[in-house]
Fold these 2 entries.
Entry 1:
Amino acid sequence: MIQPDLSRNRYQVAHANPHIILADVQERMVLMRLAIACPAGLYRLQPDGSLHFDVQGCLECGTCRLLCGEETITRWRYPQAGNGIEFRFG
Ligand code: SF4
C-alpha cells in the first residue's frame, strides 16, 4: 500500500484567524477521540493529559467536526481564500 507523503503539501495558515478553534475541553474520551481520528495527527495528547493542537497541516477533511459537537470545536470552517492546504502529489 502506498502511503501519502503529507510533507509535500503546502499550507498557508492564518494564525490570527484560524479555521478551527477548540473549546477548553477536559473530557479524556473526547481528547482521545480527536487524537486518534485526525488523519494528520494534529491533536496530540500530552503527558500531563492536556491536548496540543496545531492547525498547521490540517487536511480540511472535517473528521474532527463530525466526531465532536460545537461544545468541543467551537469553530470549524474552510480557510479563507488563499489560506489552507495546497495538495501536492507525485
Ligand atoms: S479537519 Fe481533519 S485534518 Fe483537520 S484537524 Fe480536523 S481531523 Fe485533522
Note: The longest helix spans residues 28-37.
Entry 2:
Amino acid sequence: HSVIGVDVIQSKVDAMNSGLATFHEPGLAELTAEAHRLNRLRATTSTTEAIAGTDISLVCVGTPSTAAGSLDLTFVEEATCAIATAIRAKSTPHHLIYRSTMLPGSTRGLVDAHLKDLVDEQRLQVLFYPEFLRQGTAVKDMIDPSLSVVGSYSPDDDISSVRRIFDSSTEQTDLESAELIKYACNAFHAAKIAFANEIGRVSKGIGVDAVNIMRVVCQDTRLNISPYYLRPGTPFGGSCLPKDVSALNQLSRAHALSTPMLDSLLASNEDHMDHLTEMVETAGSPRVLLLGLSFKEQTDDLRGSAAFELATRLLLKNYDVGIYDPLIVPANFTGAVGRIASLRLPNLTSLLKTDLAAAVGEKDTIVVFNRCADLAELAENLAPRHKIIDVASWPELARLSGSYTGICW
Ligand SMILES: NC(=O)c1ccc[n+]([C@@H]2O[C@H](COP(=O)([O-])OP(=O)(O)OC[C@H]3O[C@@H](n4cnc5c(N)ncnc54)[C@H](O)[C@@H]3O)[C@@H](O)[C@H]2O)c1
C-alpha cells in the first residue's frame, strides 16, 4: 500500500517526510524508514490532497476527555468536516474508517451531520473499526490484532476493504456495537487490573504472595479467564458466590483494607435484581409465571436463587405468582434448602405448577430463568397477550406468540 499521513502539526509531517517516526515504539523507526525508502509513505497537512490521492482514509485523531470527564469529539468533528469537503471534490468512491475510540452513536452522529448525502449517493462508505493495539507493542499488535471487529453504517455494507488490509477474520456488527465493544474491552481491562490490585492488597494484608495467587488464578482458563461467567443475564446466586464475596468483604474490613471494587459486587448484584423486579412490574399484570426456580439450570438448589428472590418480592406485593420447575420437589428438600424454602416461601407447594399449559394459561407475564420448559409446548400455549421476560438468554422465545424482552437485550 501507499500511505499518506495527515496531521495538523507541521513538525510531525516534516518528520514523516524525512522517514522519521514521531514517537518511540519498538520497530516503528525501522518500518517508517523502510516505507520512506520505498517511497510508500509521505505526509501532508492537507486533507484534500491526501483524500484526492487515496481510496481509504483511517481517522485516528485524539478523542480526549473534557474537563468534566466526558468525551471530546472536537478533533474527530474537525477531521470529518475536512474529509467531507475533500470527498466532495473528488469523483471516485471513498472508504472512511474511523479508528478513534468513540462512544456508541458517535459515528452515526458524524455521518448524519456531515456525510449523509455522500453515503446515500454511494460515493462514500463509512465504517468504525476500533483499534486494540497497546503502546509498547503497537507494531506487533497491528500486524496480529487480538481482536478485529468492524461496525458498518448499513448491515449489508461490504467490509472487504478491512478484511483485505487488516484481518481476514474481522467480524461485522452495527456501528454502535463496534463502538461499545471497544469500551467493554477497556472497562474489562481496567476491572481486571483493579481486581488484581485489590486481591493484591488483601494478600499482602494477610501475609500471602499476591503475584503467586494471581498467577495461579490465571491458570484456570475454563472458568476464570474464559467466556463462562462473562454473559449478561441472571443475577449471580447459588450457595457459593454471594456467601464467599460477603466473607471476603468481611476479611478486608477486619484488616482495615480498602477494597471498593470487591465491596461493590453484592450491591451491583442487588441492582440487577431490582432491575429485573422493575421489568416484571412494568409488564403490568399481577399474574406472573416463573419458569425455573433454582439458582441455575440442572440443579434444585434454591440458595441465592434470583428466581426465588423474585418470587418472594412479588408475593410481598400481592402478585399472583405461579412457578414451573420440574426439578423442584419440596418433599425432597433437605438441610439449608428446606430451611430457606419453609422460612421464606412457606406456601411454595401451592405455587408450584406441574401442568405447563394450565400454568401459562393462568398468567400473563412469563419470566424465564432457565430452559426447564419444553419450547414446543410453550409455543402451543403462549398467546399474543403474554409478555415474556427472558433472563436465560433463550433467543427462540422471541419467535413465539406474545411480546418478548430480554433482561439485558
Ligand atoms: N494510544 C493508544 O495506544 C490507543 C490504542 C487504541 C485506541 N486509541 C485511540 O486512538 C485515538 C488516537 O489516540 P492517540 O494516542 O494516537 O492520540 P494522539 O493525540 O497522540 O494523536 C492524535 C493525532 O491527531 C492529530 N490531529 C488532531 N486533529 C487533527 C485533524 N483535524 N486532522 C489531522 N490530524 C489531527 C494530532 O495532531 C495528533 O498528532 C484515540 O481515540 C484513542 O482513544 C489509542
Note: The chain has two domains: 3-175, 268-406.
